[in-house]
Structure formats: C-alpha cells, structure tokens
Write a structure and sequence with these properties.
Layout lengths: L1 H29 L2 E13 L1 H6 L2 E3 L2 H4 L3 E9 H8 L4 H4 E6 L11 E10 L7 E2 L6 E22 L6 E3 L3 E3 L2 E7 H4 L4 E7 H7 L1 E4 L2 E3 L10 E2 L4 E4 L2 E17 L3 E9 L2 E6 L1 H4 L4 E12 L3 E3 L10 E2 L8 E17 L6 E2 L2 E4 L3 E9 H5 L8 E2 L8 E6 L1 E2 L6 E3 L4 E7 L5 E2 L3 H10 L1
Parallel strand pairs: 1-4, 7-11, 16-19
Antiparallel strand pairs: 1-3, 2-7, 3-6, 4-5, 5-7, 7-10, 8-16, 9-15, 10-14, 11-13, 12-15, 16-18, 17-22, 18-21, 20-22, 22-25, 23-31, 24-30, 25-29, 26-28, 27-30
Amino acid sequence: MNDLLGKDIGWKVFSLVLAIGLWFIVINIKNPEESMTFTIPVEIQNLNVIEANNLIIANFDEIEDKHITLNIRGTRLTLDKLKNNKKYLDVIKATANLELYRYTKASEVNKIPIEITFSEDYKGLIYEERNQIRYLDLILEERKTITKPIEAEMVGQINNEYVVLDPKVSPGEMIITGAESLINKINSVKIEVNVNDILENKTVTAEPKIYDLQGKEITGLSKNVKSVRVSAEIGKKRKVTLLPSIQGTYANNHISTGVKIEPEEIVIVGKEEVVNNISQIQLSTIIFEDLDQSTVFNPTIILPAGVSRWDSTESRVSVTIEVKKQIVKEFKIPTSKLTLRTEKQFKYISKDVTVQLFGIEDDINRISENSLQGSIDVSNLSEGRHNVPIKFNLPSNIKQVGETPMVEIELIEGEEEAEGSDEEVEERSEEVS
C-alpha cells in the first residue's frame, strides 16, 4: 500500500512539472514578447519658475501640446491591456521639468530633458529608446507689457454726403503682455467695424486685433481685453466759406488793398440738423496797429459745438492782409495838351498847369504827363481873359488833391471852331491879338 502511494506522488509531481512546462510553452507561443508604439503627451512641470523670473516661453504654442513616440517592449497581453481604453496614458508618463532651464539670451534654445516613467504595476516594461535622451526645445525671452489705445477702423461705404462721426471705443485701451521681440513689433490695436452695422445698430461688439507696421496680425500675445464695444453716429459733411474778423489801424498814408484767405472754404462735419444751418464759419479776430506792409496772419477756425473740420486736421488758416503805401505826386501839363472845343478863337495865357494826384504808389507811378487827359469848358464864357478850372479824366483809384488846377485863357470872337490842342489855332489867336 505504501509503495502504491509513493508511486502516485511521484507521478503527481511529474504531472505538475509537465503541466507547468507545457503552460510556459503555450504562453510563449500564444503571448510572445513584442514591441508596440505609443504616443505620449509631454507634461510641462514647474512653469511658474519661468514666470517668476519675468521670462516667457516664446514658442509656447509649439510645446504646450508636445507629444513623443515610444516603442514599448512587453508581452502581447500586457501591451494589449495598455492599449485598451488608452490605459497607457495613466501608466506611462513623459515629463519636462522647467527648473532645469538656463537662460542666457533671447532666441537661444534651452534643451530640457524629457523623463520617461512607468507606474508601479508596470515597472518591468522597457522602451527601446531608453538610451536616447529626448529633449523639449524651449525658447525664452524677457517678458514685456505695454498699453495701447484701441482704434476703430470703419470699413464699407455710405452716401458720400455722410460720414461716421468719431467712434467711441469701450474700453479704450488694451494691456498686452508677451515676448519682448513680439511686443516691439506692435504698431496698432484695431477693431474692424462695418459702417452698415453702425447704421443699423449704432453699437457693435467685436474682438480687437494686434497689428505690426505692415498691417499683419500678431498672435501669441496675452491680452486683458477679449472684446470691445464701438458706438458712433452718422454725420453730414458740408462745404462752408470762412469769414475773417479784422480790427486794426494802418500807418499814415497806408491802406489795405485786399484780404486773401487760404483756403477760402473748408469742409465741416457734424449732426445733420446742426450742419444744415451753417453756411459760414467765423475766424478768430485779427488785431493789429499801424500796419505798414502786407502781412500774413494765422487766425483760428471757430467751430460750433459738435462740429469738426473734415478735410484737414489744421485748426488755423492763412489770412494775408495786403497793404500799400499812398503818395501825392505833382504833374506839370503843357496847356497845349488840354482839350477845348469852342467857336471862338482863343489863346492860352498860361504855358502849363500843375495838378497833384493822390493814390497807391504803384498806381501813381504808372501815370505820365502824356497819359493825363485834361479839358476845359468855356461854353458859358464871353470874350476876354478868364481863369478856367481844368477837369482831368482820372482812373477810379486816383484822386485829385490840392488846389484845383486853373488855366488862364483869352477868348476872341471868331467864326471857326477852335481846339486847344490845335497849334494853328493858337497862332491865329496870337495874330488877332
């Protein structure tokens, strides 16, 4: 009986060993060791260290969603278990510790090593690239913050007679933070508004965008404003004339010969009900004393409340007050040049006459003795000697001053018509006398 039991135990042990061996054979055939590829996100650790040192990651958009690929070696069942429901995301971790950064200068690449770890239950797993160090490429720059006004840019068209009045933007400015190189490229912050939306709604809400000098949008910056509100009204344009106001005195014997305004007209804009009642715009008063030469003044355009200049930002215009000197000049006219029509014979007792003329110097100097036309009227005079006033035909801008010029003439009864400018008549008159 004991021999039988001893033989049974031996067979049982042999059977157990054989079963275990067969199990290992089956496992190696059915669940072999193999490699499988997994894509793992890189977790960035200690980001606050960068921020605490007033630095910023210039290429953060590139690294914030960084992934690496690992070839993991293990048994088929284990790898399949990892792949099921993406369990590998909890088991395999890839981390980059930013405490390891070394900042020297902007644009230099910091290589932060990426550490691969497995959870306790999967410590036996290995990855084929374990002898190959992976890096997270980090570009650091100094952090910079600026404040920029937000401009409203109107797009679209409305009737040429109308215009969108100065839009109001709320909030009116934006605080922008980012890499110094990007901040230095900023030229403007704008919100684009369609004028038709303003016509319909009076108020528009939109996101402001940041632009460089070439008008290209700059992204990758932190903004404290996500959207702004723009409100505006529609105004009317109108061309109006400028009206000068002059208070002054001129130097002795000087007068103003004209006032020139440059420009004479401007275009204004404002609410339609206001603009429709404006045809002239007053200029600020020009004040002077004893002005003796042409002078340019720059008075201010006085615009009514709610009205602005549309065609220019200039608030002043040019007003030229032209000033000329006046003089008195004496001319000596031969009596032979005077005009006289009469039936009587006559002779001039005076050889010449003197006349004084007053006017602007340039105009007076253009007059010559030959150009002056004088005439006398003896139609109501009898024979004999007479002192007769001379009437000169003068331009409207020239005045005769001083004593009235007189000529002494002697009339002699005769049958022929005589003219004072006819020398033959004078000779006959002298023969008669």
